[in-house]
Write a structure and sequence with these properties.
Strand order of the largest sheet: 4-5-6-7-8-9-10-11-12
Distance between the termini: 30 Å
Radius of gyration: 20 Å
Helix content: 10-25%
Shape: globular
Structural class: alpha/beta
Number of strands: 12
Strand content: 5-15%
Oligomer: single chain
Number of helices: 8
Largest sheet: 9 strands, parallel
């Protein structure tokens, strides 16, 4: 079956589509939405279960400890719509520990998720999924024909032939919040040419979840990120060249989860990190550049969990927290970052 680049197999093989859609018949409406959300993630990549828990807790008002989300994942797995992999031996549903659990999905099933998400006109879709091949951008992006998009979720991925600079895309910073007025979540994964987070995205004031993972050339975040006053989760996973967090992060008073796992060039946390008054979980494994913690760390009154390595745990032990749980997961070998 030969297809032109960017064309779905379902355009030429309707029998394949009909067969795969049978797997969706036993799903309830919420589970179907969860399945379509999987199309937001790049193909052939591990999808962290924690990212799905956070997403679905917000979108579908599920419990934040992940019980309902895991139930949905098991249902999708039972229909062979995904593979659920738990790598930690001590991970269990009882304690809600899914830090090292992930989801894998066959490319054809991802195509199905994208197909199901694309049945409505673009202006009415809940998800906007852009798979950019070579240097081909949508006409509405390059020619100033941006529609008013109601999507709450935006996913942009590119292939190895894509060489355009993300920061030079012809989209007015003023137009971005007008294009995506309801956008609450952005996931950016494996954008190998992303060196700086676009300033215009800092005007998406409704944003609650921002996940940037495996962007190995990203070295700096703009000060404007402090304008995202509704942000609840900031994930900077394995951004190996990121040098630090901007001081303006102190303005994120609703932030409950901060993840800088694998950011080993980050040498210090912001001096005024104590102003993250809602912070409950901090993930900082493989942050070997850290040699000390700011004194203000002790004023993170709502902080309940830190996930880190043995060396970093010793830094936390120098600060007397009453109810802080420090978790040191088993080491896993993730070599995906070597691909860049």
């Amino acid at each position: 079956m030969e297809l032109s680049k960017g064309q779905s197999i379902f355009y030429s093989e309707k029998r394949v589509l009909d067969c795969l859609q049978l797997s969706l018949a036993s799903l309830d409406d919420e589970q179907k939405e969860c399945f379509m959300d999987l199309g937001l993630f790049p193909e052939d990549r591990k999808i962290p279960v924690t990212a799905l828990i956070d997403m679905w807790a917000e979108l579908y008002k599920l419990d934040k400890n992940g019980v309902q989300a895991i139930s949905n994942l098991h249902k999708l797995s039972s229909q062979n719509l995904l593979n659920l992999v738990v790598t930690r031996k001590d991970a269990s549903e009882a304690d809600g520990c899914y830090d090292d659990a992930f989801v894998l999905q066959h490319d054809l099933l991802r195509e199905l998720a994208i197909h199901q998400s694309s049945q409505k006109p673009m202006e009415e879709r809940k998800r906007l999924i852009l798979d950019l091949t070579e240097n081909k951008l949508p006409e509405w992006w390059t020619e100033g024909k941006q529609p008013c998009i109601k999507a709450r979720l935006l996913s942009i991925s590119s292939d190895q032939m894509f060489s355009s600079s993300w920061c030079n895309m012809q989209v007015s910073e003023v137009e971005i919040p007008n294009m995506f007025p309801n956008l609450t979540e952005i996931n950016i994964d494996y954008c190998n040419d992303l060196m700086r987070f676009p300033d215009g995205l800092c005007d998406l004031l409704q944003l609650k979840k921002l996940s940037i993972s495996n962007c190995h050339k990203l070295s700096v975040l703009p000060e404007g990120i402090g304008k995202l006053e509704n942000l609840e989760l900031l994930r900077l996973y394995t951004c190996i060249r990121l040098l630090g967090l901007p001081d303006s992060i102190r303005n994120l008073h609703r932030l409950t989860v901060l993840d800088i796992t694998g950011c080993f060039r980050v040498k210090k946390l912001p001096k005024h990190i104590d102003e993250l008054c809602s912070l409950r979980k901090l993930y900082m494994r493989k942050c070997r550049g850290l040699s000390e913690l700011p004194a203000s760390i002790i004023d993170l009154k709502k902080l309940k969990k830190v996930v880190c390595d043995t060396e970093t745990a010793q830094l936390w032990e120098e600060h007397p927290f009453a109810n802080l749980k420090i978790s040191i997961p088993e080491e896993t070998n993730d070599l995906n970052w070597l691909e860049s």
